[in-house]
Amino acid sequence: MLDNAKALLNRADSYFEKGNPDKALACYYLVRRLTNDDMILQTIYPRIARTHSALKQYERAIDSYIEATRYTEPNDLSNIYVEIGRLYQSSGNNREAVRYYRDALNISPPPDFIGDVLYWLGESLYKVPEIDQNDESLKILEQAKTSERNLVLTWEIHNTKGHALTQKQRHNEALNEFESALNEPLDFIDIPGNIYNNKGGCLEALGSREPAISCYREAIRAPRRQFDTLGFAYIRIGVLLKDSNPRLARRELERAKGFFETARNSKEIPEWFADEHLSTIDRLIDDINRMIGVPEMQPKLPPIQFFGPVGVGFNMGAISEVNQTIGQLAEAGPQEQEAAKAIKELVESIGNSTNLDDSQKNGLVEAIEQIGREVQKSPESRDKSKRFTLEGVKSTLEKVVDVAEVAAKAVNILITFF
To answer: Which distant-in-sequence residues (6+ apart) come within 8 Å of 270 by Cβ?
Structure first.
């Protein structure tokens, strides 16, 4: 019987490693029914918990970890308590997460793991203000910076401490933390755009309007952007420009609306979250329309369509931004309408090409995004350096034979603006 249990345990592990948690879980429970051997039970309950967690069955995962504590020596409980804390934190129960992280630290986790646990404790603690006394969360996060870590990166600690300080209305200190996070190599940062948005929020709170706008622009340009990151940045820019330049503010808010609609439709963010922001955007646009009057609507170009094969991984977020640019250009003067048509033709040529790989397609769309951003700059900022930038983009585009003609057409029209 014991041999069968061990063989099934190995099979369950194999299923899990191959990405089949359902089959793994069935085997783990079968092992549980076959044996009462304490050594196997000590091994199997954490694996059952891990598998429930992979299936997003967090309550059952917690129950399995708690069951595992019955078969674990007291001095070895630290890792299990950390896992329970992580599950509570993932499910939003930060109070219980704090309790288990504290228990883990009281036992003392492995030295190279202490910094991770301190970070998770500080991150959970600041979100429960009633038990975060005497800046305890800030002290714990500071301690995490200098402790050995296996998983948590330095920028994450700076970013989280910035959030904690922002919650305490200590914006100058928060700004320093966000800047420290951005001083880390951007290649290491999952969400640089979000950190730029956080920094922009601090600058707003401190009354630094222009630096805040610049920071939100950095969020828009940052790598690995998400739709809601872009949408939030455009909302804040629209709010900050609303009184001084309402027409530009409205354009920025319309861009924000496009990104939140895309994020909702792609399930990148919860529908209620998208709708909440879309409602705010509509209200702001209505306010601006009352200030300046609603202009007569111009016919809109249809959105970009792809009729040929589009490579897997094609940057549809970039396409959404280009569609926004085209729509805004088409509502302007005759030259801008010509530019909009040329950009649309170019991007569709890219999407329909069978001779470009995904990285080339994405790179060209990024170039068109740059064109779109430049053409929307105010006339005062249309200087020679911008023209040189566009000529560099043109040179890049012309290297791709199957879109060279239309690329040159698009950029030549735009260069005339500078």
So the answer is: none
| Alpha-carbon gap, residue 300 to 332, rounded angstroms | 11
182-186, 303-307, 342-346, range with greatest mean pLDDT: 182-186
* Residues 6+ away with beta carbon under 8 Å from 346: 364, 368, 397, 403, 406, 407, 409, 410
* Cβ-based neighbours of 130, under 8 Å, separated by 6 or more: none
**pLDDT tens digits for range 320-376:** 666 666 666 666 566 666 667 777 777 776 666 666 666 666 666 666 666 666 655
CA–CA dist 41, 306 (Å, integer): 56
- Say whether 153 sits in a helix, a strand or coil: coil
Calculate the CA dihedral of residues 68, 69, 75, 78 and round it to 10 degrees: 80
The DSSP string of 346-409 is: HHHHHHH-SSS-HHHHHHHHHHHHHHHHHHTS-GGG--HHHHHHHHHHHHHHHTSGGGHHHHHH
From CA 255, how far away is CA 317, in angstroms rounded?
Answer: 12
